[in-house]
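Course assignment 3, question 2. Fill in each field.
Student: A.L.
Task: Predict the tertiary structure for the chain below.
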Amino acid sequence: MSELEPLIETFDAAAGYLDWAAFGPLSPAVRAEMNADAALLGTGRRAGIDLVSSRVDEARDLVATVLRCAVDEVVLQPSTTHGLTHAMQGLTGDVLVSAQEFPALRVTARRAQDARGLLTVREIDPPDGIVTVDAVAEALTDDVTAVAVSLVDFRTGALADLPGLRELIGDRLLIVDAVQAFGVVDVDWAAADVVCGNGYKWLRAGRGTGFARFSDRARERIEPVLSGISGMQGDAATTGFPPPLPTAGAYSIAPSDPLAASRLAVAVRDVVDAGIPAVAAELRARAQDVMNLADRYGVPVLTPRDRHAGIVTLLPDPQDAAPLAAALANHGVTVTARGATIRVSPHIGTGADSLQLLGDALAQVATTRVVVIDAPTGELDLGALES
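Answer field:
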């Protein structure tokens, strides 16, 4: 039995579920811990309430372990977007962000620009929306104080070159949306100054399990303008207007939900125990299985084959897009169809049964693919006949 087998065996989602980039069905350990802690909170006993409350520190410590940073640099958040909002609202200068980024980055940046007038959003629009070192280099100026990027692009599954970006931008802040990467990508997180993520996708921890890391440099340059009661020095009895905490806790508004922290702690512990490098390698292998099936049945793959994690985005020919989406649904395959693309996202626990369903759907479309005739010559496009 490999070191990953115990974790793989905990995957009990229905066959055909290939949408982990959208939502991760809760793991058995998360469900059990959630029920146990909910029962403790229902007793009315101080000991039980305090025990569940301690999950907040436990979750922060585990996140810090993965990020290899001090625990004081980590604060729990209701979502990835909450953490990014704290970062953007406190920034000044110019921030570079892709025009095709997930709204958690580009919209929070624009809201901060409009709200305070101290931040200017500079959009880049690289090919396929994939943020590369070269694309950032072309837009980099002395006015740029921060670069914001998703480590794994939600549309294409492209994996950003974090060390390369760090080297390029020098002393500027690097803000990373890690929701599609945390716990399943083996990377040197020290390259980033701000890391925001959530456990409801690949970690299988459910919503509400967000977190953020603010490095020393980030805390020096990002004002905690949204700091609330949980982000201030003192307690509820402190009068006046207490200053914010000197730690990442300053970037919080209200106390964390201990039940969410409990779910996050269990989920992060699972991947830490299994070994994130091993998890990352297995996930890439499952994504490769999907790519192999797409190649077999002639469906183009948009995802970069040399830099990806678990997301595989298919770009079928226009005439195949609707039939393929229908075939996937009819075969019980859950994916995300968005515009002209179909995003397939397996996990390390994706078994042969799920891949078989995916292959059956792809085969169905391949066998019914319309034969294209070159009108001027009347020649058949033999490529359209391949399955």
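Instructor remarks: The mean pLDDT is 94. The two ends are 36 Å apart (CA to CA).
Grade: pending
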